[in-house]
Amino acid sequence: MHYPTDMMFHWLDNTAQLSQRVCVVLIAANVLIRMEWLRQALRGDPQHWRNRIVCATFFGVFAIIGTHSGFLLDVHQLGKRIAWPADLSDALKHSQAVIGFRDLMVLAAGLSGGPWIGLGAGLLAGSERYLLGGFAGFASAFATVMQGLWAGWAFRWRPRWAVSMRGACFIALTGTLLQKLMLLVWAHPYADAQTLVLETAMPVAVVNTLGVLLFLFVMQDLERDRLRDQAQQAELRALNAQIEPHFMNNTLNAIKALIRRDPDAASQYVVKLARFLDDTRRNVGANSISLQQELTQVERYLDFQALRFPEALKFQRNISPQLLACQLPPRCLQTLVENALLHGMQGRATPLKIDIIGVDHGQSFIVRVSDNGIGIPAPRLAELGKHPVDSSNGNGSALFHLRQSFKLAFPHQSMLTINSWEGHGTEVILTIPKRSKPW
Q1: Which among 41, 55, 260, 408 is least surrounded, fewest beta carbons within 10 Å?
Q2: Distance of alpha carbon 255 from alpha carbon 261, whole angstroms
Q3: Strand-strand pairing, 415-421 and 71-74
Q4: HEC-encoded secondary structure of the chain
Q5: What pLDDT is attached to residue 86?
Q6: Is the pLDDT of residue 403 over 80?
Q7: What is the mean pLDDT of residues 16-40?
Q8: In this predicted model, which residue has the larger pLDDT, 325 or 248?
Q9: d(CA 111, CA 61)
């Protein structure tokens, strides 16, 4: 006979055992979530197939670990600890079942990314549980899949549940209840199923609820990171939208002077300026544009500068044609060219030459923007790009914001290198991963 005091002792003992094991696995999962590629998948669009596969696999693998981090229970020998088989491929005996936290990880999958991610993790972990066998094998496997769908449905159709403590507790407890009901319906014999449910309901409910709450805090941390990135992107877009007042004033004055000499050419420059401003406005709303689009804007900008300084500026580009479709943040090359003009022409008697060279490097490409200007003093060079620096011609923040935009677009994958030689010129090297689709 299963006395209430015995059951209470088993509940407390099983809860303590599971809590210890789940904490270790949750710590490992939390460490992995700090990896940038996984954070991008978790924070990214859950409708994107790549994000779905990465997230479903991550949670599915940890759900399998949750199965094997638990312990075996024989409903005919309650209270007795049973070691896992040495060979994990061995099937369980008919009267044996697993007490683990597989369901916790599947519930977390659905709450983190929606029904497809919950379904994927559930199928992965549920299939592995079915292969282990035991009298509850099919019921446990099917319940695992349904729990993933249930949590994913809540994420999709009741998003407030998925981000509140009360809602997360309700989802975890309902998912646990769903699993126990399926055990009673499909696990046979019924007496064994009833014993299993009574023995495991309380420990599993407690562990699932606490574990889901912990994952809720982790996902809220990721959401704060995502919102911070969006705010930074909005700030960068606002900076990109600003047309330097001196550039506009000088360009309009140059066109005004050209009207007296060559009205037809002046009219063409008015059209060019309108296109330049229109494309600038259009690019503000984009996270990325093609290298060809960026080069077009750079050439227009330099065309206006050449109108002002017809003998003082030379420009040359040498870009591999296969790179023109590659994506990069808007205004990155224009920022470098503007800096070269602003700082490189000071006190020069000979024309300033600006070269843009693009080279294919397999998984990435390199763009070099170089000039033969006056160069940058070593103390200032050491600070450029790391933070805004004082500048007599501006606030010195252009390179800093450029580096920030690359960090947002290509975390740990891009590089901005500045080389300079006083009196001989400056070279800025951008190393960018190849991406042919806008992000």
Answers
A1: 260
A2: 10
A3: unpaired
A4: CCCHHHHHHHHHHHHHHHHHHHHHHHHHHHHHHCCHHHHHHHHCCCCCHHHHHHHHHHHHHHHHHHHHCCEEEECCCCCCCECCCCCCCCCECCCEEEECCHHHHHHHHHHHHCHHHHHHHHHHHHHHHHHHECCCHHHHHHHHHHHHHHHHHHHHHCHHHHCCHHHHHHHHHHHHHHHHHHHHHHCCCHHHHHHHHHHHHHHHHHHHHHHHHHHHHHHHHHHHHHHHHHHHHHHHHHHHHCCCHHHHHHHHHHHHHHHHHCHHHHHHHHHHHHHHHHHHHHHHCCCCEEHHHHHHHHHHHHHHHHHHCCCCEEEEEEECHHHCCCEECCCHHHHHHHHHHHHHCCCCCCCEEEEEEEEEECCEEEEEEEECCCCCCHHHHHHCCCCCCCECCECCCHHHHHHHHHHHHCCCCCEEEEEEECCCEEEEEEEEECCCCCC
A5: 46
A6: yes
A7: 79
A8: 325
A9: 16
CA distance 315 to 103: 63
**Which of 64-68, 103-107, 246-250, 418-422 has the lowest average pLDDT?**
246-250
Amino acid at 236: L
> pLDDT, tens digit, for every residue of 136-154?
999 999 999 999 999 999 9
Q: How far is CA 105 from CA 29, 62, 169, 184, 392, in A?
A: 10, 7, 14, 22, 56
- For residue 267, the tally of other CB atoms under 10 A from its CB is 13
pTM (whole model) above 0.85: no
CB 270, CB 255: distance < 8 Å: yes
Handedness of CA 45, 49, 55, 56 (dihedral sign): positive
Please tell me which residue, 359 or 11, carries the higher pLDDT value: 359
Instruction: Burial-class residue 41 by CB neighbours within 10 Å (0-12, 13-18, 19+).
Output: buried
